[in-house]
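Worked Example 4.2. Consider the chain below.
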Amino acid sequence: MAILEQGGITTRSKSQYEEPAWKRLALGEDSSDLMAQLAVWKAANRMNKNQMHENGIFVKGYFQALDKRRLIADALRGKVHAFESTGDRDKILKAVCAGMVNHLYRGNYGQWINGDVTRELARESVVNTFGVNWIVGIPFDLEIPTRFGKRTLNLVQMATVVKPAWFVEIAPQLVKVVSGINPYYDPQSDVCMSTSQTVFNGQKIAEVNEATPDHPDAPRLFAQWLAGKML
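Applying the procedure from the previous section yields the following C-alpha cells:
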C-alpha cells in the first residue's frame, strides 16, 4: 500500500524502445504492476543507492515509500496482531482492490473503460493483457508535445489483473443484481428464461441466462409460443 500511495518506485525509460532495467528484478510477473513493484522493493532492500540507480529504481521514491510504510505501521500498531504480509497473493490483491473500487476498468480491444473516459495501459506496465477483461489501476493523464501541439494521453498505471467476483466480496454495498431481463419461453426446457446481470459501481461485471418460471411475463410468453405453433 505504501508503494501504491507513493505511485511506484521505478524510473521511466527514456525511449519506448528501451526496456527498463528494473524489469529484470521482476521477471515472470505479467499480471500485476503492483506485484512487480513489490519484487523491485524486496530487491532494493539489499542494495545501496548506486545499485538502485543502476537498476532503474527511483531512489527518492523508494525512501519516500519506506517512510509511508513506517507511518502505516505506526497507525496500525496495537490494532493488528502483526504488521507483516501473509504472502498470499490473492489476499494482497484483494486488499489493493478494496482501496480501488472506483478504478475498475473493462477491457475493449486494447482500451480500458471506466465511465466516459477510454484509457490505454502505460507503456512501462508488465501486464500481459491478452485475454484479460478486467484490471484495476490508477488513472493518469500525461501531456506530451507533438508536431501539432500538446496532446494528452489518458493512461492507466499501476495496473493489476483482477476477478470481478472479488469486488462482490469486498464491497457488496456497491453491487446490484438486476434479474428478469429479456424474458422468453424456451420449449426445450419448458420454462421461461431470462437474463440476470450483476452490476458493480455502475459497471456490468457478470451476466447469466437462468430459468425464471415465476416471471410475470411467463404466461404471456408461453401463450405466444403456443399460438405460433397452432398457426
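The first strand starts at residue 104 and ends at 108. Residues 2-167 form one domain. Compare this with Example 4.1 before moving on.
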